[in-house]
Amino acid sequence: MPEQKIPATVITGFLGAGKTTLIRYLLQNAGGRKIALIINEFGDLGVDGGILTGCGIETCREDDVVELNNGCICCTVADDFIPTMTKLLERDRRPDHIIIETSGLALPQPLVAAFNWPEVKTRVTVDGVITVIDAAAVAAGRFADDEAKVAAQRAADTSLDHDNPLEELFEDQIRAADLIVLNKADLIDRDTLEKVRQETAAATARTVKTITAENGRLPADVLLGLAAGTETRIAERKSHHEQEHEAGEAHDHDEFESFVAAAGPIADPARFVAGLKALIGEHDILRLKGFADVPGKAMRLVVQAVGQRIETYFDRPWAAGETRQTRLVVIGLHDGLDAAARVAIEARIAGLASGSDSVEAAE
Ligand SMILES: Nc1nc2c(ncn2[C@@H]2O[C@H](COP(=O)(O)OP(=O)(O)OP(=O)(O)O)[C@@H](O)[C@H]2O)c(=O)[nH]1
């Protein structure tokens, strides 16, 4: 049986935006996922590894945290990142998910490109790039809470081979994002937050979704794609249709909504994916993830989408006695996924699966 690919999430954003805080919360609420962390930081400026390893979180063992402190990760990809990933993948204890926290100076694109290196490509899939933004700093006309510290980090990194102005770096980090987190929402009022949201959206041409957070407190299901633990839950969960006349599930995070959309076999996977892309663009869908039944294929098709990034691959044969089915978990903001939207989305997914609805992807 082929080894299932391990999803990797890149978490980027300026120094002090709240990346470590978000990761810490994520580890504490990982839903049983075994997470390995790669943290990129420098000398005495870096304390994140210590914060995370010393945190006493059960799911995060000391040797699951790897620190890369030879310079900015995007400038040391070949020397540092690839060997580290390879070592991580050769461990006996395979992680369910890999999280990479970049330094505040990192350009995410070279890092994402590194996932195409042969050593990594066959074993890891990019789950998504999450860009954390200090909304309060941006509202105040800055990119980071402490721009002097960012400058100090830059000065301390002798291997840094890009010297973009802060504004350009900020735009690059936003452009690379599959999901943007406007963090530190507690420090500004709603109107200001909305202004920051618009400003951020203007910096990206794509239909990237933006969510807000206080102290990075966001559910793992929103931040991360499928993992071993979620797999069984999808099969067990009732579809939206089955749930329609029942009380909704209890939520820890009221601002988010999720449901399972069930559909029939996929007539044409490429058109299905193109249609899903369009659907995500049209609705407030943050994530779509699950499995699909492709007739004629012995293997199950994994579908993972965050923003406009959609990954599909066959991960394992359907087991004997297992029902071949298409089930996608749809996650979005509560306000955007009301009952009518859920009915419409489920119907569209069913139509896309059967080929009766052949929406082309929005460019
Ligand atoms: N008020 C407020 N403070 C926050 C929030 N998120 C993080 N902080 C604080 O902001 C500071 C920086 O947070 P970190 O999580 O270390 O930020 P980071 O992006 O990991 O920073 P580096 O790793 O240094 O690049 C810490 O003092 C956090 O406690 C938030 O949502 N609201």
Domain count = 2
* Heterogens: guanosine-5'-triphosphate
How large is the share of residues in beta strands?
15-25%
Q: Write down the CATH class of the largest domain.
A: Alpha Beta
CATH architecture classification of the largest domain: 3-Layer(aba) Sandwich
CATH superfamily of the largest domain: P-loop containing nucleotide triphosphate hydrolases
Helix content: 25-40%
Question: How many DSSP-defined strands?
Answer: 12
Could you say which structural class the secondary elements and strand pairing correspond to? alpha/beta
Average pLDDT, all residues: 82
How far the N terminus sits from the C terminus, by CA atoms, comes to 36 Å
From the 3D structure, determine the CATH topology of the largest domain. Answer: Rossmann fold
Q: What is the CA-atom radius of gyration, in angstroms?
A: 20 Å
Order of helices and strands: EHEHEHEHHEHHHEHEHHHEHEEEEH
Largest sheet: 7 strands, parallel
Strand order of the largest sheet: 3-2-4-1-5-6-7
Count of DSSP helices?
A: 14
Organism: Jiella flava
GO cellular component, one term: cytoplasm
Function: Zinc chaperone that directly transfers zinc cofactor to target proteins, thereby activating them. Zinc is transferred from the CXCC motif in the GTPase domain to the zinc binding site in target proteins in a process requiring GTP hydrolysis.
Catalytic activity: GTP + H2O = GDP + phosphate + H(+)
